[in-house]
Every structure is written in C-alpha cells, then in structure tokens.
Amino acid sequence: MAARYSAPMPLRQPFPNLWLVTDERNDAGLDAALRRLPRGSGLIYRHYHLPDAERLARFLELRQIARAHGMVTILADSALTAAEWGADGIYGAPRALYPRRAMLRLATAHNLREVGEANRLEADAVLLSPAFATRSHPGAAALGPLRFRLIAARSRVPVIALGGMDPHRAERLGSPFWAAIDGLS
After folding, report:
1. What are phi and psi of 75, to 5 degrees?
2. In the beta sheet, which residues pair with residue 106?
3. DSSP alpha helices (H): ranges in 128-166?
4. Are 129 and 114 in contact (CB under 8 A)?
5. What is the pLDDT of residues 32-85, one digit of tens each?
6. Rounded to whole angstroms, how far apart are CA atoms 142 and 140?
7. Which among 82, 107, 137, 145 could disulfide-bond with 118, CB atoms 3.0 to 4.6 Å apart, if both were Cys?
8. Are strands 178-180 and 18-21 parallel, antiparallel or unpaired?
9. How far is CA 42 from the centre of its chain?
10. In this predicted model, what pLDDT tens digit does every residue of 98-115 receive, in sequence order?
11. What structural domains does the chain harbor?
12. pTM for this model (two decimals)
C-alpha cells in the first residue's frame, strides 16, 4: 500500500500512500484505527486541544503503536519539538517547516500559491485540502476533482489529498496519496 518515492531525507520505508490525521474528534478510536491501517501507512499527530504534557504522553502512546506497525510518525509542531519527541517528521505551513532538519517535512496547502511556496521551500510532500467537503471546515469551499488535479500538477513533490477523503474519493481524484481524519477512524 506504499508508493515508491525518494525523499531528500533517509526514510526507513517507501513513502506512505495512506495517512491518518489525528484530531480531538477521532482520539477515542485512534489506537484501533492505527492497528487496522496497512503496514507502512503514516500518522500525522496534531492533538492541539491537549495541554503540553498530555499531548506528549498521547503522542508517545500512538507512536509506539504506529512504529510496531511499520508506520511513519509526523508531528504538527516545530522541527525542534519533533526531534525531541522522536517524530519522523513535521507537518505545517511551508514556512513553519524550518529550521531544516534530517526529517520528513509535510507542508499544508489550500491553493496554488501555497503549493508554490512549498516547492520553493523544498517540502518533501504537500497535503492539499480540502479536496472535498469536510466536517473539519463546515461551509468551506472544496477544491473538487478538477481544481485539485490542476493545483496538484504544479507540485514538485507528492501531493497528499486531504478533506472528505475515503478510498472511493481517492480513486475519483486519481491520487495515490491521501489522508483522512474521520474517513480512517
């Protein structure tokens, strides 16, 4: 379930096709969801709702499950915090992915300008959203398949579809890389 991609940093496995993104809404089912995902998937840990000590403790619990299943763990935080916590990489706006460290850097993008910024700042992958309508951002305009493909075509790195994603919608986009919050938990 993992596509071959040579990232600039040393990756212990092929670049994951499938990414589970954490959120306050899906916390109760995360342990089981991680165990159901195919080996070699990825985990993007956000959990902004928790105080620092609880956030770290929960990350360490989930990282242990993820690593036992051969998964990459990404932290939505600074590169320094990701290194201290033992994450495989960081997730955030392209400018937040610095200082550059030997870890995977996943940039968020919602439009062509942000994909261009991720290209300039040499992100390793881009999470482009919202591909479809999503509960995370009710009422937000979704990109839809055509706009998603047009914007994704300008990326120099893998584009991970996010927003209302499930296997059927990933197929509809023609995207080998996709991520979900509710769709996987």
Report:
1. -110, 130
2. 91, 125
3. 144-152
4. no
5. 999 999 999 999 999 999 999 999 999 999 999 999 999 999 999 999 899 999
6. 6
7. 107
8. parallel
9. 7
10. 767 789 999 999 999 999
11. 18-184 (3.20.20.70)
12. 0.89
